[in-house]
Specification:
By secondary structure, the chain is mainly α. It has one domain. It is built from 15 helices and four strands. A hairpin with a 2-residue loop joins strand 3 and strand 4.
C-alpha cells in the first residue's frame, strides 16, 4: 500500500507571502549616504502588483466591488490632474508613480491577495517581527554609540535606515507596536496574546530611543484609541497598569536619560521656545500654505514644493538639516518637503487632490470602525484584526500632521494601507476568521471575494 505523505500542495500556499517578503526586505541595511530612493522592497512591491494582476487575469474575475473600487481609486483623479501641472514631465511621472504605488496599487494588491483573517494576522505579525529586528539594531546603536548624531553624540536609534532617514525606524517600530497591541487586545489564544503583549512592551524601548516626537505623539494617541475601542473596562485596567509601571520605572528606578527627558519636555515648548527643527517645520508649513493660495484648486504640481519653496519661505528657514553617524559621514540634507502630508498634498495637488486623497482615508476609517462594531457584536471574533486596522489608520492620520511619505520605509506605509483597506472593505463583513460567505447565484461577489476563489 502506498504511503501517503501529508505534503502541502504549493497551490495552497498563501498568496500573501510575497507581501510578507516585501516587509522582510526592509530588514536589509540601507547604503550609508543613500538618497532614500527606490530600494529592493520597492522593486519587489512592483512585482507583487504584477503578480496580482496576472492572477486576476487568469481567474477572469471582477477584482473589486463598486465601493472598494471607488475608495481605492479616488486618489487617481487628483494625482492625474496634479501630474499635468508638474514643473517638468519627469517630475510629474516620478511623483505620479510614487503616489500610485503607496496609495493605490500596493494597497489594492494587498486587498486582493489577503484571503482571510489568518493572512491578515500573518502580515500583522510580520510587522511586529520587522519592528523587533529594527528595534534591536536601534537599541544596540544607542548602547554602543554607533547611531545617528543627536546633540553631538551618536546615540540616536535609526535601525538599518541610516542617518538620512531618522524617521524610518521610528515608523517601523510604531507600526509593530500598534499591531502588537491590537493582537494582544483581541480574542485569540491566551499564549498568542501574551506574546503580543510582551512584544509591545519591548518595542516601547527602541521607540523611546528614536527621539522622534512625532512618532511618540502618534503612538500614544493610537494606543489610547485602541484601548477605548477594546472596551472601557479593559481600557481603565490596562491604563492603570501602564501608568503604575511608568511611575515605578521612571520615578522609582530612575529609568531614562537626561536627553530623553529633555526631548519629552520639548514637546510642550514647540510654541513658546521652539528649536531650529520646529522653526524650520513652521516655516515650511507657511510656505506650503502660500503656494496653495496661489493655485487653490490644482496646486503647483507634483514634486513642485522644492521648486517654489525659497520663493515663499521666510528667512527663518535654514538651508537644511545636519545628518551624521550610523556609518555615514557628515552631510547637509536639503529640506524638500513641508513634513506635513496634508500640506504637501494641498500645495502640490490643491483642494481637488486633498479631497480625493483624504476623502478616501476618511471613508476607510468609517468602514473600518463599522467592521469593528460588527466584530464586537459577533462575540469578539476578528476583534484583533479590527483593532490593528483601526490603530494603523489612526496612527498614520496623526503622524501625517508631522511627516509625509519618503524614504525606504514608505513601502511599508503602502502595505499598511492595504491591511487597513482589506479590513474596511472585505474583512469587516465576514462572519468568522477564514469563513467564506456564500454568494447567491446571480449576485456579484463582495469586494475581493472573487479573487479569493
Amino acid at each position: 500500500m502506498a504511503l501517503a505523505l501529508p505534503l502541502r500542495h504549493p497551490a495552497r500556499l498563501s498568496p500573501v507571502l510575497p507581501v510578507v517578503a516585501v516587509v522582510a526586505l526592509l530588514a536589509l541595511p540601507v547604503a550609508p549616504g543613500g538618497e532614500g530612493g527606490a530600494g529592493p522592497a520597492d522593486a519587489l512591491s512592483a512585482l507583487v502588483v504584477l503578480f496580482c494582476a496576472v492572477r486576476l487575469l487568469r481567474a477572469r474575475s471582477r477584482p473589486l466591488g463598486r465601493t472598494a473600487a471607488v475608495i481605492l481609486g479616488l486618489p487617481v483623479a487628483g494625482l492625474a490632474l496634479a501630474a499635468l501641472h508638474a514643473v517638468s514631465p519627469g517630475a510629474g511621472i516620478t511623483g505620479l508613480g510614487r503616489y500610485l504605488q503607496v496609495f493605490v496599487l500596493v494597497p489594492s494588491a494587498v486587498v486582493l491577495l489577503v484571503r482571510g483573517r489568518a493572512d491578515f494576522r500573518l502580515l500583522a505579525w510580520s510587522f511586529v517581527a520587522l519592528a523587533g529586528w529594527q528595534g534591536a539594531v536601534g537599541v544596540h546603536q544607542y548602547v554602543t554609540g554607533t547611531g545617528a548624531s543627536y546633540q553631538g553624540e551618536d546615540i540616536r536609534a535609526v535601525g538599518t535606515f541610516g542617518a538620512t532617514d531618522v524617521m524610518g525606524m521610528a515608523t517601523v517600530v510604531s507600526f509593530g507596536l500598534v499591531c502588537a497591541v491590537g493582537l494582544a487586545l483581541g480574542r485569540s489564544a491566551t499564549r498568542e496574546r501574551a506574546v503580543a503583549a510582551c512584544c509591545a512592551f519591548a518595542l516601547s524601548v527602541p521607540l523611546a530611543l528614536s527621539f522622534s516626537r512625532g512618532a511618540w505623539i502618534a503612538t500614544a494617541l493610537t494606543l489610547t484609541v485602541q484601548l477605548v475601542l477594546a472596551g472601557p473596562r479593559r481600557a481603565v485596567r490596562i491604563g492603570a497598569a501602564v501608568v503604575a509601571a511608568g511611575v515605578v520605572l521612571v520615578g522609582g528606578l530612575g529609568v531614562g536619560t537626561a536627553m530623553l527627558q529633555e526631548r519629552i519636555d520639548s514637546i510642550t515648548q514647540v510654541t513658546d521656545a521652539p528649536d531650529q527643527s520646529v522653526t524650520d517645520r513652521y516655516t515650511m508649513w507657511a510656505a506650503a500654505t502660500d503656494m496653495w493660495r496661489e493655485r487653490p484648486l490644482t496646486g503647483v504640481g507634483l514634486k513642485g514644493f522644492p521648486e517654489y519653496r525659497d520663493g515663499n519661505a521666510s528667512l527663518a528657514l535654514s538651508s537644511g538639516s545636519d545628518t551624521e553617524g550610523a556609518g555615514a559621514a557628515y552631510r547637509r540634507q536639503p529640506l524638500l518637503s513641508p513634513h506635513n502630508m496634508y500640506l504637501l498634498v494641498l500645495c502640490e495637488q490643491g483642494l481637488i487632490g486633498l479631497l480625493c486623497l483624504a476623502g478616501g482615508w476618511l471613508a476607510l476609517l468609517v468602514c473600518a470602525l463599522r467592521g469593528l462594531w460588527r466584530a464586537r457584536g459577533a462575540g469578539g471574533r476578528g476583534l484583533d484584526c479590527a483593532l490593528v486596522a483601526c490603530g494603523l489608520l489612526v496612527w498614520q492620520l496623526v503622524d501625517f500632521v508631522y511627516a509625509d511619505i519618503g524614504g525606504p520605509s514608505t513601502v511599508l506605509t503602502a502595505v499598511c494601507f492595504g491591511l487597513i483597506a482589506w479590513w474596511a472593505l472585505v474583512g469587516g463583513d465576514r462572519q468568522a476568521p477564514g469563513e467564506r460567505t456564500a454568494v447567491p447565484a446571480g449576485r456579484a461577489a463582495p469586494a475581493g471575494e472573487a479573487a479569493l476563489r
